[in-house]
């Protein structure tokens, strides 16, 4: 979901000017008055998380909105039987935690770092105060919520109508674009997503992911190097990720 406009350097959360710049480049805050941006930046706090560290848990009270400066954050829920489902992956430039922040109810999901992550937290009271003053920010929030709804609708549609191979190919293509490193062998997905994490993202078993990855490997679409996946043929992988009617 991150765009070039939202990207920030590793030092983005360490100084006031850098935090102001991060806010200004984000979808939520861009276009706002610079004085207001600096005001909210002064109230914000930098945060750092290591791999596997959880920022907040489902059902916890919401006290802040979070913006990504660097890293990868997994938004997830767990079922009564202990199984986990990944709802979204947050990247540089993304803001999250807005639902519970706005309605005052407990968090609807948990957030765990999948990579070393740097982010900024905006206190709830300061954010609501700013939103009351700025109609443009309120509109951006509405647009963000609509984007989340569309994303979730797409996920439900894909799960209902697309086979696992198509969904996995789409996921790997997106990961390669957002977290890919070009090498002579292909595009290495640098995000630390093992087969269990991919299974949680797609709502299937690890065994099903393993079988499909082996199929992609035999087709020459990918290769595995330890825990990393290398996309060897990005064009063919993208084609595999399109529904059959779109490919015909």
From TrEMBL:
Which PANTHER family does its entry note?
A: CRP FAMILY TRANSCRIPTIONAL REGULATORY PROTEIN, DNA-BINDING TRANSCRIPTIONAL DUAL REGULATOR CRP
Question: What Pfam families has UniProt attached to this entry?
Answer: cNMP_binding, HTH_Crp_2
Q: Which SUPFAM superfamilies match?
A: cAMP-binding domain-like, Winged helix' DNA-binding domain
Q: Where is the Cyclic nucleotide-binding domain?
A: 28-148
Q: Which GO terms describe its cellular component?
A: cytosol
For this protein, the record's InterPro entries field holds: cNMP-bd_CS (IPR018488), cNMP-bd_dom (IPR000595), cNMP-bd_dom_sf (IPR018490), Env_Response_Regulators (IPR050397), HTH_CRP (IPR012318), RmlC-like_jellyroll (IPR014710), WH-like_DNA-bd_sf (IPR036388), WH_DNA-bd_sf (IPR036390)
What is the designated name of this protein? CRP-like cAMP-binding protein
Extract one GO molecular function annotation from the record. DNA binding
Q: Does the keyword Transcription apply?
A: yes
Organism per entry = Dongia mobilis
Q: Source organism's superkingdom?
A: Bacteria
Give start and end of each HTH crp-type domain: 162-235
Question: Could you tell me the keywords of this UniProt record?
Answer: DNA-binding, Transcription, Transcription regulation
